[in-house]
């Protein structure tokens, strides 16, 4: 096996100030490529809509089909953002455009690794990528390598910081029937206190995942308990290199537990309150019982 030395420029600025640095991926709109090579690769997948996913599609295609990607530190590209978007998605407005684009890339290039996307985005399991037969035929025609080859030889160090996620134990809308509320990050994102609000059935801030190693997440955010009874649940960045956490779900009692403190997620009895708090586990407490409903889109 011959691995390609991929040197991260961040943290290695002295090395990368002038040297070309191989990179597993690139920004979708900022690159230079030989026109004939680009043509041979089929340009971008014409089935990709608007934007999103193209950076992965072309990156995987380049590496797996015999090419490579280099950062060129002495070459700079200016990217000026407008204060508004001068176009809209037209008939695709409100559609899962980026997710559908990613599915095209996953099902064309990522082989068995595609299953990890559906752990991260389980609601996309039944979403259709459209016709990818021409992309698969191109991959065969160019005799492209497997995604396992890409992981072994190009992105071999990614698992040091981003280990593969374990399966979800439960996911979806976590509802407490006594209060008629669902766990909700309420759009807080990083360093926010999450709560329980009336269930709306649209997923989004109320689509929560709990994996088999105890990590609970909403979107890209990890949910972390304060210590002891009376504590709150906070959302924030997931610790790099970790996929485990303190939570577990008991299917018999329907409680979400934090084992280290023998505490359970408890909704507030008050109708207008969004408080979600940790209380001593009590299997008879109706406000500690949560039922999960998977939400596909």
UniProtKB/TrEMBL annotation:
GO molecular function ontology, one term from the record: metal ion binding
GO biological process, one term: protein O-linked glycosylation
Pathway terms, separated by semicolons: Protein modification; protein glycosylation
Protein's cellular compartments: Golgi apparatus membrane
Topology versus the membrane: Single-pass type II membrane protein
Cofactor(s) essential for the protein: Mn(2+)
PANTHER family tied to this protein: N-ACETYLGALACTOSAMINYLTRANSFERASE, N-ACETYLGALACTOSAMINYLTRANSFERASE 7
Protein keywords: Disulfide bond, Glycosyltransferase, Golgi apparatus, Lectin, Manganese, Membrane, Metal-binding, Signal-anchor, Transferase, Transmembrane, Transmembrane helix
Primary localisation category: Golgi
Domain Ricin B lectin intervals: 168-293
GO cellular component, one term: Golgi membrane
UniProt name for this protein: Protein-UDP acetylgalactosaminyltransferase 7
InterPro entries, per database record: Galactosyl_T_C, Nucleotide-diphossugar_trans, Ricin_B-like_lectins, Ricin_B_lectin
Protein family (similarity comment): Belongs to the glycosyltransferase 2 family. GalNAc-T subfamily.
